Amino acid sequence: MNDSPKLLSEMNDRSREVFRRVVEGYLASGDPVGSRTLTRSLSEKVSAATVRNVMQDLEFLGLLDSPHISAGRVPTQLGLRLFVDGLLEVGTVADADREMMDATLGTNEPDVATLLDRVGSALSGITRGASLVLTPKHEAPIRHIEFVSLGAERALVVLVFADGHVENRVFTPPPGQTPSSMREAANFLNALAEGKTLSELRQTIGHDIAARRQQIDSLARDLVESGLALWENAGEQSERLIVRGQSHLIDGRPEVQDVERIRTLFDDLERKRDIARFLELTETGEGVRIFIGSENKLFSLSGSSLVVSPYMNADRKIIGAVGVIGPTRLNYGRIVPIVDYTAQLVGRILSERGKG
């Protein structure tokens, strides 16, 4: 990835143009690009044999590959990376795409999760890829906490927030819990939680348990600490990945190996493994990031590309992310500005609502 400027500087104008046109042709059609096709579009009039020699040089550099004998060339992962870093021309968001996204976020939907679900559906529809939306954690002050037993090995913690939002989280409680210890744990937490968000409560609760060890029995203390572990583990309810448009990933990809890769991707998305890592992909700074093939830590086995951007709250703190995932031959020039615009729009809407 860091070698891109060096590689580009070592290529002459003819090599650079041949390379760019091979990549653009492949991204547009998904098919290998042949030398005869290129000779008709190059700015310099050269023979097909000359173009073939240039393509062989680019193949030697690891930028192009020949999927079949005597066929045209396609870019390698390294080639796509070079193109994205040094030659990609990013357009602006088309008026129709902008209007569709604006309409999605202009519905005055009171529930943030429902609103972001609509964003995901619109983003998938506009880009014809699968969309990923990581929703923000709920950070309103807590009004009330309650534990409810659901059986010997299951319990429910009910969190009521000052803005009226309610979350129910099922977890495995420590053994031996009684109705009395559950009430005591809830009373202990409610005394500490007033006016605090979950994040603020997490920061102080360990100290408070140690300081008030004599005031709370061991069963209740175990339950409080178990609840704390639950909150720290950023579960489905507090940090949720919304996935829409998976069916787009199989469009136009009949090859068996591609179908197998997509099935792997579906499995990853269904299990929603390592959701927090999706946000980590964006934490090195603002703006859109592009992950191609195996560069994409989260979905590396599926050989897909991910275009992702964080969105921020009014304090410029990253609270979530939006992205599009698809085959490596994504239309990067069109999708990058759409993802960027969507992330900025979501951040602005949520900041205005005072969420996150």
UniProtKB/TrEMBL annotation:
GO terms for molecular function: DNA binding. It comes from Fertoeibacter niger. The keyword Signal does not apply. Residues 115-336 form the Heat-inducible transcription repressor HrcA C-terminal domain. This is Heat-inducible transcription repressor HrcA. GO terms for biological process: negative regulation of DNA-templated transcription. InterPro entries: GAF-like_dom_sf, HrcA, HrcA_C, WH-like_DNA-bd_sf, WH_DNA-bd_sf, WHTH_transcript_rep_HrcA_IDD. Keywords: Repressor, Stress response, Transcription, Transcription regulation. The gene is hrcA.
